[in-house]
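Sample intake sheet
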Amino acid sequence: EEISAFILRKLKRDAEAYLGDEVRDAVITVPAYFEDAQRQATKDAGRIAGLNVLRIINEPTAASLAYGLDKEEDQTIMVYDLGGGTFDVSILELGGGVFQVKATAGNNHLGGDDFDRRIMDWVVKRFREETGIDLSGDKQAMQRIKDAAEKAKKELSSLTSTYISLPFIAQGPSGPLNIDYELTRAEFENLIRDLVEKTVEPMRRAMEDAKLKPEDIDKIILVGGSTRIPMVQELIKRVMGKEPFKNVNPDECVAIGAAIQGAVLSGDVGRDLVLVDVTPLSLGVETLGGIFTPIIKRNTPIPTKKSKIFTTTADGQTEVEVHVLQGERPMAADNRSLGRFILTGIPPAPRGVPQIEVTFEIDVNGIVHVTAKDMATGKEQSITVSGRSNLTEEEIERIMKEAEAHAEEDRRRAELAETRNRASSLIFSVERSMRDLGEKMKENEKEELKRAIKELEKLTKGENTEEIKKGIERLAEVSQRIFADVYKRAAAERATEEGTKPTSPREGGGVGEGEGSGAVDVDFKEKK
């Protein structure tokens, strides 16, 4: 919750800076297949960030609002939402200002990040085959490869080929090694084909649950940056028999839909809009024999409230344990446990006589409340099913107060830690290069670098962030100059031996701070 709260607090500040006014209320979207605990954690994170969370809504539902606000005619739409880490598909009916979710399905472990990893694996494997060096254990190198993989993925949505260029990704026997690989769209599609195909089954399951055929769908709305991949759009066309609708920005439509829902809840929208969402999975209890007995079936419109009568399984039983579960499997052990509670004080009676009413209620945010009541005595016990991650009111209040009280201190500490990490990364890279170059370096060059390293190490033990930054700049400048000289001498020596003219390193060669990831780059052209 606290990490999510950091992000939400940053968004709150950005919105306030843009609007010039305080932002207090918010509508937050989540993947449709988020479980109850994840929804509650998101709501808690909003409160920690200083926001009054008016509503938690599903991302595909929000996207449908962005699409359908100005649509007068009745329509049935499919929202295909392929995000960074999750995939959701939802079927909705729009008409008369009512947005009703008919069915939803998805995969919480499939998204654009998986496509990035396939490119990363391809790069690492090719580099290992060419050089014998395995980069998978080098965190800095892998971060640079990850950034380059994401960039290549995006470029291949509009280009038929792109280049992954990473200078000085590793040190070889004769100098720095670079990556400069061409990745074609066709090769990229071969890498991700099985992942894209995994989106077909949830599409078909949602259609079956909604009791619809592809020809019943009027529009297919794309959500998430990965839906720009041509292969994804071609698969949708193949399965659904129609082109996806491309007039909605897949990166912005969810946020726009959340804003519309916020306007509806605050009364700022002049027309009546009703948003009817559904629960993505069935909810129920464990009964005799380890059976899962659903009380609220999946794709039930929310908010909702349903009850069932249960009884005891032994003579004289005075208490029962209610085990709350979520899922679609017939056996309780195969579904996700959301929590347990015990109802006590049941009058002793023969088995099967007591009547215990179990009530499930899902609110507008998709959060579940369960109550068990003995019909004879009126005694009841309840639970808000929010998983172990749920925070108490006192904990939320404490975290909010601590965050406010220590906001500036936390910022300074974070900046100091980040600067120390940059210094450590630079020192590591310079020392590695010194070991690799060995006897090629002059003694005075080694001593100058050691002094700069020692000075920076001393600064990192202190608390002065600005001084550490200056130390980083000094070591970067010294290392760039010295390593450029070393490689220039080495190139001249090889040229003399080979009888050829030496090549010069590119401008800006040497060791420098990597951008974003804290990686350290050495940027020389590899001599062919």
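Comment: The longest strand covers residues 161-172. Residues 112-195 form a domain with the Actin; Chain A, domain 4 fold (CATH 3.90.640.10).
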